[in-house]
Amino acid sequence: MAERHQGLLQRVQQLSLKLAEDLAETALKCEDEDRKARLSGAFHKITRGLRQSVALEAKLVLDEERAQREVEAAARQTLKDEVAARKTQLKVRAERVVWDEYDQGYEDELTEGVELMCRIEDWIEAAAEAEDFLAEPAPVQLARLIAHFRLVGVRPSEPPPPAPQASGGNCDSVPRRPDSS
Questions:
Q1: Dihedral class, residue 106 (left if φ above 0, else alpha if ψ from -120 to 50, else beta)
Q2: How many beta carbons lie within 10 A of that of residue 109, not counting itself?
Q3: What is the pLDDT of residues 122-181, one digit of tens each?
Q4: CA geometry: angle 144, 99, 164, nearest 5 deg
Q5: DSSP letter string over 24-42?
Q6: How far apart are CA 81 and CA 66, in angstroms?
Q7: Distance between alpha carbon 115 and the CA centroid of its chain, in Å?
Q8: Which of 74, 141, 147, 170 has the greatest number of beta carbons closer than 10 A?
């Protein structure tokens, strides 16, 4: 439809320009002042329509560019949301794994667990910077994370729990031990 409208506008512009040129030539050659004034008025109306069609064409181009930018921005936001959800999903599952290994009853293990979670969160953040972060399934990423940090007793094929709302990844807070139900 946009192509058809653009073609019509171009045709109107061509005809308007041809008519304006003809009116201008006729008005300039005309010796009757009254007729010359009418031809000049007609020329003004035709050129005004020509200017409006040029302005409309420019507006349509700008509208198309704006629409394209909005589509691209929406796609970027969707990707950003999907990356945030995946990061949260991996962090939640990793936290569960860590607290399955570390006993919060012992302060040295608690400190070690908190430090490990901070390193894991940094690892996840770094991994999320890659363009292909979402290309592989979360269980595969979790398996790589488990291998990297040498966590044991975990079945990576077990699907991660649904992602809760993003918490912002603050390593200053002590992660809580998830319920083992």
A1: beta
A2: 14
A3: 999 999 999 999 999 999 999 899 888 888 654 444 444 443 344 444 454 444 444 444
A4: 75
A5: HHHHHH---HHHHHHHHHH
A6: 22
A7: 34
A8: 141
